Amino acid sequence: MNGKFSQRLAAERERVKRSAADFVRSWDAFWFLPRHVETLAILRILTGAMLLYTHLVLATDLGSFLGVDAWINNDTSRALHDGRLGEATAAWSYLWSIDSPAWIAAHHVLVILASASFMVGFLTRLSGPLAWWFQLMIVHRLLGSLFGLDQILTYCVMYLAFTPCGAVFSVDAWLRRRVLGRRREPIWKGWTWLLPADQPSVAINIATRLLQLHLCVIYLFGGLAKARGQMWWDGTALWYAVGNYEYQSWDATFIAAYPGVFTALTHVTLLWEIFYCALVWPRWTRPLTLAIAVGVHAGIGFGLGMATFGIMMIAANFVFISPEWIRRWRGPTAERLEGPSQTA
């Protein structure tokens, strides 16, 4: 009996060791396996375009948002963060100290240039962090005038800014071919960092995982917050959304004739949002999960008058598309490694 028990114990120990080793290997691969950049490059273009759009819209009435005569002036904005008018935060913005309209306008020109450079992938190693920094300063200044689009943009730019997302589909890729060509050693070694090569990188994978997990957290807590409301359980939440004339882009009140439809869509939306963080990872449930995401956010965008938010949320979901699929679409061009190797 003691011999059989010892054998079983040894077998169980071996099984636990193998399971632990498999977990460590999977964890290491999840975070640190080098990944190609195509997915992040497309997300850079979409995020940069939306970032540029928001700053251009802000420029049309800049004085109402920034400066001494803004709807929420500098002192009030500072008070919203330091605890005098609400809960204290660690946020800070140098824009609280700028009152001159000329300086504010000059600053906003730099903001627009940084956003445009990031979008087209021009010196992305520099324009990315700069675009993120400007965005952070502006959202800290504009507390009270923000909505979901600003938060989504800020977190996307934050993760993208510190990756070689300008390696493809960018001005940087074109410059790399012109500046480095087929040289084995560039005249200035900094070119290999400033103009990153189209090669797999650990930094790309880490940023991808952080973007994915951040999106999962957003959906999870958004779904749990919805679950606290009775309308999401009795199936009327969708009806109250489409029937609200304040947000309505097109008249969808005809859905009232089909209560079973909007009740089902309400419940599907709630369950999808809560369980998104589990359903988006398995390959066999991912396509349906992403398809529902497109449907939900397209509905929000074109039915509730929040097109920019809907488009940006669809773009954020794009991070779950494999770069290998995009490389197959690119064809033989993607297989050529240009210039010296660079690991970010």
UniProtKB/TrEMBL annotation:
Residue stretches spanning the membrane: 41-59, 102-123, 130-146, 152-175, 255-281, 287-320
Signal peptide (UniProt feature, chain positions): none
Protein location: Endomembrane system
Coiled coil: none
The HTTM-like domain, residue ranges: 32-325
Gene Ontology terms: cellular component: endomembrane system
Membrane topology recorded in Swiss-Prot or TrEMBL: Multi-pass membrane protein
SMART domains associated with the record: HTTM
Principal cellular location given in the protein's record: membrane
Keywords, sorted A to Z: Membrane, Transmembrane, Transmembrane helix
Full protein name: HTTM-like domain-containing protein
Organism: Allorhodopirellula solitaria
